[in-house]
C-alpha cells in the first residue's frame, strides 16, 4: 500500500494512512443504508462475557450450536437493517468461525460487508462461561504470527482490517519495530491496519500509536476506542485521529449494557421520553452526533437489541438534550475500575 507523503507530515503531527480509510476505501460502507453503524460480536462469539443482562438475553444452554445460531440471528438482523461493518477478534471465542460460516450461508451479503478482526488476546476459557480466566493478553510478534495464521485460516481474503487488541501506553507493540514491519507487510497485502484501546489512558495511547511510521509512512488506518456518555475522555484524541484521516470506530457505546435502561426521572430517561426513543437508541445517538465517529458499534446480543440500537440513526438530539446527556460523564478511572469489576457470565 503506497501513500504519497504530504508536507503536513511534520514531526509530532498526527496522520493516518490515507483519508478516512474504511468508509472511503470500502464503498460498501459508504453506500450502505446504515453507513455509520457496525456490529461487534464480543457478546455472541463465546458463552462468557462481561455485559450485564446475559442471563436474560442469551440461550440458557450456551452450546456452540446455540451461540452460532444466535450469532447468525444478530448478523442477519444487522445486515437487514443496513449494517456493513462487522467486528470480531481472536479472543471472542468462535466469533471469526461464526462470521466465516455466516458469510458462506449469505453469499448475497458476503461481498457487501467489511470485516475487521483483532489479535493480541488469546481465548483460553475452553467454552466455559464460568472459567477463571477467559483471555490472555500478549502483543509479541510470536502471538501476531500465530494469530494472523488462525484468522486467515477462517476468514482468508475476506479480512479487510486487522487491529491490535486493546493497546495501552505500557504495550510493547508501541515500540516493537519488528512487529511494525510485519504489520506494514500485511498492509502491503491490502489489509488495513488498526488498533483498539482500553483503559483510562486511551487518549495517550491513541496519540502515541498515530505517530508510528514505517519507512516514513503512517502504519495505522483506524482506531477503535471506548466512548460513551459515562466515559467520553477519548473524544478529543479521536477527533484528532479523524481529522488526520483515520477511521474512528467507537466501541462500548452502551457501557456494556449500563445505558440500556433508564429510570423515567433520570437524564437519559427524560431525553428518551422527549425524543420518543429507547435509552439504548439515545445513548448511541449521542455518539453518532460526534462528527468524528465514523462507525459506532452495536454489541447487541439479540435481534431485537440490534433493531433497538440501529434506531439511533434516526434520533435527533438538540443542543440542550446533548448538554444534559454530556453531564452524565464521570472520571475515566472510576469507569474503568467499575468495568474491571464486572463479572464474566
Ligand atoms: N478492546 C476492544 O477492542 C473491545 C472491547 C469491548 C468491545 N469491543 C467491540 O465493541 C463491540 C460492542 O461493545 P460491547 O458489547 O462490549 O459493549 P456495549 O456495546 O457497550 O454493550 C452491548 C450490550 O449492551 C446490552 N444492550 C444493548 N442494547 C440493548 C437493549 N436494547 N436492551 C437491553 N440491553 C441491551 C447487551 O448486553 P446484555 O444483553 O448482556 O445486557 C449488549 O450486549 C464489541 O462487540 C466488540 O466488537 C472491542
List keywords for this structure.
single chain; 15 helices; alpha/beta; about 350 residues; two-stranded antiparallel ribbon; TIM Barrel
CATH uppermost class: Alpha Beta
CATH topology group:
TIM Barrel
Number of helices: 15
Largest sheet report: 8 strands, parallel, barrel
Order of helices and strands: HHEHHEHHEEEHEHEHEEEHEHHEHHH
What value does the average pLDDT take? 93
Order of the strands making up the biggest sheet: 1-2-3-6-7-10-11-12
Query: What is the molecular shape?
Result: globular
Question: How far apart are the termini?
Answer: 42 Å
The total count of strands amounts to: 12
**Range of helix content:** 25-40%
What is the number of independent domains?
1
Q: Brief description of this entry?
A:
The relative contact order is 0.16.
Give an overview of the whole structure.
The protein has 345 residues and is an alpha/beta fold. The protein has one domain: TIM Barrel, CATH 3.20.20. The protein has 15 helices and twelve strands. Strands 1-2-3-6-7-10-11-12 form an eight-stranded parallel β-barrel, surrounded by seven helices. Strands 4-5 form a two-stranded antiparallel ribbon. Strands 8-9 form a two-stranded antiparallel sheet. Helix 4 packs parallel to helix 13, helix 9 runs parallel beside helix 10 and helix 11 crosses helix 12. The N terminus is likely disordered. Bound molecules: NADP nicotinamide-adenine-dinucleotide phosphate. The site of NADP nicotinamide-adenine-dinucleotide phosphate (NAP) has 32 residues, from helix 3, strand 6 and helix 13.
